[in-house]
């Protein structure tokens, strides 16, 4: 049996399928479009929902879900020390404060 299209659940055939994508789903070429606006997508233009790994739908760049205002900010340790502050960041976890 052919693997089903994620969107329409009908079988996909070699000459009319896109994928498997990173999460393992397949689409027909005609079904591979933004879930919100219906814009046709390609393997270079599609986006996944990075906030919800259970959401296997595909989105265009304008409709990809973004984090809400209360979602945690990704940790970036390179922001803790900057040449502009010379390590005087008040919560500097990377370098101890210089003795005065």
Automatic annotation (TrEMBL):
Gene3D superfamilies referenced in this protein's UniProt entry, alphabetically: Cysteine Rich Protein
Keywords: LIM domain, Metal-binding, Zinc
CDD domains (alphabetical): LIM_Ltd-1
Gene Ontology terms for molecular function: metal ion binding
Superkingdom of origin: Eukaryota
Annotated signal peptide: none
Residues of the LIM zinc-binding domain: 3-70
Stretch list, region Disordered: 69-100
The name this protein goes by in its record: LIM zinc-binding domain-containing protein
Record organism: Acrobeloides nanus
């Amino acid at each position: 049996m052919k693997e089903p299209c994620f969107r329409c659940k009908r079988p996909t055939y070699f000459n009319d399928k896109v994928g498997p994508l990173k999460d393992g789903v397949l689409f027909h070429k005609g079904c591979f479009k933004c879930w919100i606006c219906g814009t046709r997508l390609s393997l270079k233009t599609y986006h996944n929902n990075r906030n919800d790994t259970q959401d296997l739908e595909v989105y265009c760049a304008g409709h990809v879900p973004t984090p809400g205002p209360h979602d945690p900010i990704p940790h970036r340790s390179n922001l803790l020390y900057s040449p502009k502050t010379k390590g005087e960041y008040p919560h500097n976890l990377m370098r101890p404060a210089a003795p005065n």
